[in-house]
UniProtKB/TrEMBL annotation:
InterPro entries: EF-hand-dom_pair, EF_Hand_1_Ca_BS, PPP2R3C. GO terms for molecular function: metal ion binding. GO terms for cellular component: centrosome; cytoplasm; nucleus. It comes from the Eukaryota. This is Serine/threonine-protein phosphatase 2A regulatory subunit B'' subunit gamma. Its main location: cytoplasm.
């Protein structure tokens, strides 16, 4: 390179011209030459370029913990911004007025009980509804809601529900953002806990909960959000993901004072469900120390989980002096009760991957299935051949590599739940082995009901 040659030439000339110069003068000359050559090599300073000043600033460093004034200023500015956004949303009176205008300008003929409106009348409503409603009256939204009406109209009810849903989403986003301490669009576990704790008094279905149970209820509710929306365990969830999933709908469904009993039992966030999960935990905790040992967890469900699998649970999951706390137990329960879901399969895959190779091979399958065979012997049953089970698993999953099953292979196969049950639970394996008999019995029962 030219600059390397220049430095060599300089060093050669320097040897001839060092007489009578101090060490400081020599270093100053060296720095001057180096700076000149470095500047030439790097090119012109970008800050002097005209385009550099035209690029808007897009990164603002968060204030440090010791910079109290900047932190307060940032919090105040965010609060003002969220208040302004909240005022831009339609309130109840404005929504009622919108419904009145839609009803007034509906386009005949009426189809059944559903009133319709065409694009011309749609625009008439837009002019009368006011500035806040303007974003909803676009050709794009009209086209999205257009179905098979022969007159090219949309349902007034569908449009109004669309507006209501949008307003609710914006209100909820603003409400969640108030708990976003960092202001980065994420909620940490403590942020979401505060949100749900303050939400409890607004949910009539939770009126019967004792205040002493609130902390356990909040923990139960928050774990579902983090188990499914933070599978990589980053410790935070995007507000956008919270809004996109159905969990918040399930939680706010508890505002319905007449929610049916079956809907409550199937809703993870309901009082009966939370009490069921916590009650199970207390029943398993035989020594009443507030934690679960491996022997205590072995009684979970039908009590047929293999010892090898339980060993892996306590090796890989967070424990305290070899025992499991309620939060870790909740992750376990969510995985066990949702084995079809990718997040649950990821949870189990980490436990099944005993060699930490990011895939399951014949060794890993055999490692777990031997425990199933041992349980079968202890129950007086003839053990099933591992070779047969191994072939069935690979046939079900059909992995890209015929010798290795990755997590993605397991998810793509749609048989992940079955594979997991075969390897960790004798009852799950028995159900799979006798699936044809059980199916025939179910069909027979259905036929009896029909008669």
């Amino acid at each position: 390179m030219d600059w390397v040659k220049s430095l060599k030439d300089y060093n050669a000339a320097k040897q001839k011209d060092t007489v009578g110069k101090t060490e400081e003068e020599k270093k100053a000359e060296e720095m001057e030459v180096f700076t000149k050559l470095y500047t030439e090599m790097k090119g012109p300073d970008k800050k002097q370029d005209k385009t550099f000043s035209a690029i808007p600033r897009f990164y603002y460093k968060l204030p440090g913990e010791d910079d109290v004034l900047l932190q307060k200023l940032r919090e105040e500015s965010r609060a003002v911004f969220l208040q302004r956004r909240s005022r831009e949303l339609l309130d109840n009176e404005e929504l009622q007025n919108l419904w009145f205008l839609l009803d007034k300008h509906h386009t005949p003929p009426v189809v059944g009980e559903d009133q319709m409106i065409n694009y011309d009348d749609f625009l008439k409503v837009a002019t009368e509804a006011g500035a806040k409603c303007k974003p909803f009256f676009t050709a794009t939204i009209f086209a999205k809601l257009l179905q098979n009406d022969p007159y090219g109209r949309i349902s007034i009810m569908h449009f109004f529900n669309y507006v209501m849903r949008k307003v609710w989403l914006h209100q909820t986003r603003i409400g969640l953002s108030l708990y976003d301490v960092a202001g980065q669009g994420f909620l940490k576990e403590a942020d979401l806990e505060n949100y749900i704790l303050e939400l409890i008094p607004t949910l009539p279905q939770l009126d019967g909960l004792e205040k002493s149970f609130y902390s356990f209820y909040v923990c139960t509710a928050v774990r579902k959000f983090f188990f499914f929306l933070d599978p990589m365990r980053t410790g935070k969830i995007r507000i956008q993901d919270i809004l996109a999933c159905s969990f918040l709908d399930d939680l706010l469904e508890l505002r319905d004072e007449e929610l049916p009993k079956d809907a409550q039992e199937s809703n993870w966030f309901s009082a009966p469900s939370a009490l069921r999960v916590y009650g199970q935990y207390l029943n398993l905790d035989k020594d009443h120390n507030g934690m679960l040992s491996k022997a205590e967890l072995a009684r979970y469900g039908t009590g047929t989980l293999t010892e090898v699998f339980l060993d892996r649970v306590f090796q890989e999951c967070l424990t305290y002096d070899g025992e499991m706390d309620y939060k870790t137990y909740l992750d376990f329960v969510l995985a066990m009760e949702n084995r079809k879901e990718p997040q649950a399969q990821q949870y189990f895959f980490r436990l099944l991957d005993v060699q930490s190779r990011s895939y399951l091979n014949v060794f890993a399958l055999n490692f777990f299935f031997r425990a199933i065979q041992e349980q079968m012997r202890s129950h007086g049953q003839e053990p099933v051949s591992f070779a047969d089970v191994k072939d069935e698993i690979f046939d079900m999953v059909k992995p890209a590599d015929p010798l290795h099953i990755t997590l993605q292979d397991l998810i793509n196969s749609n048989h992940g739940e079955t594979v997991i049950s075969i390897l960790i639970d004798l009852n799950g394996f028995w159900t799979y082995e006798n699936r044809e008999v059980l199916m025939a019995e179910n069909n027979s029962q259905d036929d009896d009901h029909d008669i």
